[in-house]
Please model this.
Amino acid sequence: MVASKPLKQFRNVTRGTVLADRVRLAESFWARLKGLLSSPPLAEGEGLYIVPCRSIHMIGMKYAIDAVFVDAAGSVVGVVERIEPGKISPVFGRARGCLELPAGRVAASGTQVGDRLEVVDG
Model:
């Protein structure tokens, strides 16, 4: 995983679920540029939060992920499930950041557009 910031937990307050409890932040230009490139697949409970971010690309990736786009208030404004290597997500104009998760995590948590997420220090 990238970024050396303290780990965070992302909870879906609307659904009463935890999306990930070991989320790293990618806030610098270089951390956002690298993202998950050259990293092993995310394990259950892991994630990467890229901020600012309105769209992601999977060019150079070797595995699919789920992506949850949130606005500054923590509302989910876009969801892309199982985005495959080589693909580019839609642009979500209201998004402030993107939470990247293991493929299948969005469905398992029931997360949908309009849900509210909460971030807790790990």
